[in-house]
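4.2 Preliminary Data

To establish feasibility before requesting continued support, the project team ran the inverse folding procedure on a target of 262 residues. The structure was first converted into the token representation described in Section 3, and no sequence information of any kind was made available to the design step. The complete token record follows.
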């Protein structure tokens, strides 16, 4: 029924520890045995630490380690590759530094699939530094500036979706900072209805080495410029003007930089 796709890499030496806590959160799930689940670990690592760890990890669910030697460092490519390895019709994405909070998470998702068979399911999100304390709960919602990085949905770990949709609209491998926002924009454009399971949460791991910390205003501007060309008929230039006004008292540097590309 559900393939859990976990894109992984070295994570500056923390890859195994983060993967372990995510797998532990899956192992703690209370799930009826009638619902088959597999775990796909899509591995961008250049060393064997994660591969060696998986060989010894005791999991309740089948784990397949899939070495991905292409596109190292491109999270979209790694997610897309993991999806191609999955055998079940629904994909549950779980980023390496994230985890499932409630032990009924998978059971709730499985019941929704059985009873509603939606195209996609969003759950709520929270944040943690230690897997014990959780702060900043959020319920996914769309907004007019989502494509530009105003992310009111959270990262893709909140998502369970039909594999067929991900095959039709994969994550865009040309964007890094906005990979999740661009995907949601594309998803809502073609699949506007979804099931919101707001009572269960994923926890986003908060740590100093997260990708966003390595990216600058110039990265954001470059990716938005690319998206203007990707969606030429969506009136995005006018929306960027409105976005700049929205940013006026929030991020003047970004607003100034964006005005130069419109």
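Position-by-position output of the design step:
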């Amino acid at each position: 029924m559900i393939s859990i796709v976990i894109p992984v890499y070295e994570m500056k030496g923390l890859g195994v520890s983060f993967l372990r806590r995510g797998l532990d959160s899956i192992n703690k799930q209370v799930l009826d045995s009638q619902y088959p689940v597999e775990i796909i670990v899509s591995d961008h690592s250049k060393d064997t630490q994660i591969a060696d760890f998986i060989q010894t990890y005791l999991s309740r669910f089948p784990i397949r380690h899939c070495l991905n030697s292409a596109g190292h460092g491109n999270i979209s490519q790694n997610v897309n590759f993991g999806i191609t390895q999955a055998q079940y019709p629904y994909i549950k994405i779980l980023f390496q530094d994230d985890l499932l909070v409630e032990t009924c998470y998978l059971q709730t998702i499985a019941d929704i699939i059985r009873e509603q068979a939606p195209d996609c399911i969003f759950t709520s999100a929270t944040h943690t530094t230690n897997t014990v304390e959780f702060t900043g709960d959020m319920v996914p919602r769309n907004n007019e500036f989502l494509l530009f990085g105003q992310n009111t949905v959270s990262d893709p770990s909140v998502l369970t979706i039909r594999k067929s949709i991900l095959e039709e609209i994969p994550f865009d491998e040309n964007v890094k900072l906005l990979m999740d926002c661009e995907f949601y924009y594309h998803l809502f454009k073609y699949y506007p209805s979804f099931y919101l399971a707001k009572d269960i949460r994923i926890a986003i791991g908060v740590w100093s080495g997260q990708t966003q910390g390595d990216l600058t205003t110039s990265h954001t501007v470059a990716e938005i410029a690319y998206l203007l060309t990707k969606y030429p008929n969506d009136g995005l230039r006018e929306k960027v003007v409105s976005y700049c006004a929205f940013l006026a008292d929030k991020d003047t540097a970004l607003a100034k930089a964006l005005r130069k590309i419109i």
